[in-house]
């Protein structure tokens, strides 16, 4: 018998060899060997962990994990609304119109996880605010009303995490945490810990029942190129564009096997200009690695002269039509990698533009935007209103 096991042991080493690439083979062979022996003879070390920047799977081809998903026509929903009385109003809106989807804050603009997660991995880095006190009840209601649920995760704009871990953010020469004019801090797209933290939140959202993960603020802070040299932060030899695109690719390859779509919000004007090196956003590069791209093409966000409009906000049809023309021009060259185009459009009044430069938005203006999308061959869209009060009488 000793001769038999000695021979098997020799075979084990010949088959599995050495090195990290053979860890799986070692584990399988060891389990078979130990089973035959009736006791543990071979101990196999687990695969080594790494602290380097995560990398996407080489040549990981994108496939749509939900080819039978409906054409999404949705609205933005804050965690306050999702966990409060306004949810009933929004569900009635879904029931009474052709709207069929809600984009719900799961990690909000401050960086809070908006429901009482019990996952140790998330609690280690994250901070919860129980805006959605019973997330399971919410998901059940959405299912009962045939609502396609999309989890919005604000990625690199994360004041909460930046304050908790300044080493994940940007610091002044005196060591103090950098913040923009609004008091918001961002975390660093070069940091693997930041990547994995946000992907972990997305994975929990999948377990909760969300069908799509929408990442927002997938970028460096605005105007970063003007301040980068004066700040201290971890970085690699990668460009900012490659760091951001790398996160998107990594996230998609982590989440796609779970059966969930990945979408990214991006500045609308990114389709009309070359890659925004300063903030690290390349419209085509990001689009090639997501299932859905959502350019934020609110007419109010375009300044004088865009699409030959003196005041873009006052001509929603022409502004959206121009934005879609540029979007198609930017994405058509990527061929089979072109994602679903599902823009964010405007259902709010931009009074801050000043008298004479804006109009009040209602059903007519929303429908003008939808018509411009339809005329451009785009039938999916999302409506943005920060207070979640959407115009009545719209024909979606």
TrEMBL record:
Domain DUF4015 stretches: 74-390
InterPro entries the record matches: DUF4015, GH
Superkingdom assignment: Bacteria
The name this protein goes by in its record: DUF4015 domain-containing protein
Source species of the chain: Paenibacillus glycanilyticus
């Amino acid at each position: 018998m000793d001769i038999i096991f000695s021979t098997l042991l020799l075979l084990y080493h010949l088959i599995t060899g050495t090195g990290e690439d053979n860890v799986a083979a070692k584990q399988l062979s060891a389990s078979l060997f130990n089973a035959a022996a009736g006791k543990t003879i071979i101990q196999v070390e687990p695969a080594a962990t790494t602290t380097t920047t995560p990398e996407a799977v080489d040549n990981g081809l994108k496939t749509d994990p939900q080819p039978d998903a409906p054409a999404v026509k949705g609205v933005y929903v804050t965690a306050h609304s999702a966990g409060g009385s306004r949810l009933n109003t929004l569900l009635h809106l879904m029931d009474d119109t052709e709207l069929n989807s809600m984009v719900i804050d799961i990690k909000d603009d401050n960086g809070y996880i908006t429901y009482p997660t019990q996952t140790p991995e998330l609690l280690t880095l994250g901070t919860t605010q129980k805006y959605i006190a019973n997330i399971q009840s919410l998901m059940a209601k959405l299912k009962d009303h045939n609502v396609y649920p999309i989890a919005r995760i604000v990625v690199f704009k994360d004041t909460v995490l930046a304050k908790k871990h300044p080493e994940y953010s940007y610091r002044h020469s005196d060591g103090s945490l950098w913040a923009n004019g609004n008091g918001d801090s961002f975390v660093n797209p070069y940091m693997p810990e930041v990547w994995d933290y946000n992907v972990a939140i997305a994975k929990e959202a999948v377990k909760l029942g969300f069908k799509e993960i929408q990442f927002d603020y997938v970028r460096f802070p605005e105007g970063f190129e003007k301040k980068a040299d004066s700040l201290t932060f971890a970085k690699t030899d990668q460009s900012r564009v490659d760091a951001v695109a790398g996160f998107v690719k990594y996230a998609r390859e982590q989440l796609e096997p779970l059966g969930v779509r990945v979408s990214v919000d991006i500045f609308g004007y990114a389709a009309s200009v070359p890659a925004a090196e300063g903030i690290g956003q390349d419209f085509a590069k990001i689009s090639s690695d997501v299932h859905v791209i959502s350019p934020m093409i609110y007419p109010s966000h375009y300044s004088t002269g865009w699409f030959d409009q003196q005041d873009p906000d006052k001509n929603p049809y022409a502004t959206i039509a121009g934005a879609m023309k540029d979007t198609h021009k930017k994405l058509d060259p990527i061929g089979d990698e072109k994602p679903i185009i599902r823009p964010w459009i405007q259902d709010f009044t931009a009074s801050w533009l000043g008298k004479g430069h804006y109009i009040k938005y209602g059903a007519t203006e929303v429908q003008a935007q939808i018509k411009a999308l339809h005329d451009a061959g785009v039938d999916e869209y999302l409506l943005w209103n920060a207070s979640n009060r959407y115009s009545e009488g719209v024909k979606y």
